[in-house]
Amino acid sequence: MADVSRxxxxxxxxxxxxxxxxxxxxxxxxxLDQNAVTVAKLLMAPHYRQILTLSGAQVTRxxxxxxxxxxxxxxxxxxxxxxxxxxxLRGVLYFEDGPVESGAVGEELRQADLQHRLRLLxxxxxxxxxxxxxxxxxxxRVASGAMALNANGPYDFPTQLLHWRAGETYRLAVRRxxxxxxxxxxxxxxxxLGFSDVNSEKAIEGKKLTRITSExx
Length: 217
Known about the structure:
- With 217 residues, this protein is an alpha/beta fold.
- It has helices spanning 26-44, 61-72, 102-111, 128-138, 153-165, 170-177, 180-192, and strands spanning 9-16, 50-55, 79-89, 92-95, 98-101, 118-123, 142-146, 202-206.
- A hairpin with a 2-residue loop joins strand 3 and strand 4.
C-alpha cells in the first residue's frame, strides 16, 4: 500500500467536557477542553492537511456524526482521524444534547459506509475502551480508550500525539503513554478527589500496527 501523505490526512478534534462536568471541577473541564484543541493543533498541524474542531454547543450527537461524514467525503481526504474528548460511562458518551449509547453512534457511522476513509479514533473519555469496539465496528481502522475512569489525560494526550506523529505504530504510541508511574500517580490524585473505579490505562481495538502514514483500509 502507498503511504498516505500529509496532504491526504484530515484531523477532527472534538471537545466538550464542560457541559456535563461536575460544578466543583468546572475550571478543570474548561481547561481540558481548551487544552485538547490547543495541543492537538500545536503538535499535529505540520502533519495534517487540515485540523477541524467541534467544541461546546457544536458537539451534539448529530453534529458529531454529520461532521465525520462530511469530512470523510471530501475528495482531498484519504484518511480521517478523530481525537475525542467527552465524558463517558460504560457504553455511553455524553454529547451536548445528552447521553447516547456508543453503539448507536457507531451504527449511524457504519451505515454511512465510510470505512475506506475512517482510520484512528483516540478517545480520552472515561470508559473509552468500551466505546472503542463500537467505533471499530463503525469502520475506524483502530480505536482506543481508558479501561475505566480516565485521569491521566495531561500526560497521555501529548505523549500519544508525539509518538503518533513520529511515525510509530499506534500500539507503541499507546504503550509509551501507558507509563506506569504516571498512571498510578494520576489515578491516585483522582481517587483523592473522591472518584472511584479509576483506571486510566488505555486499551486498543482494531489494527494496532497502524501508523500516521497508513491507509484506512
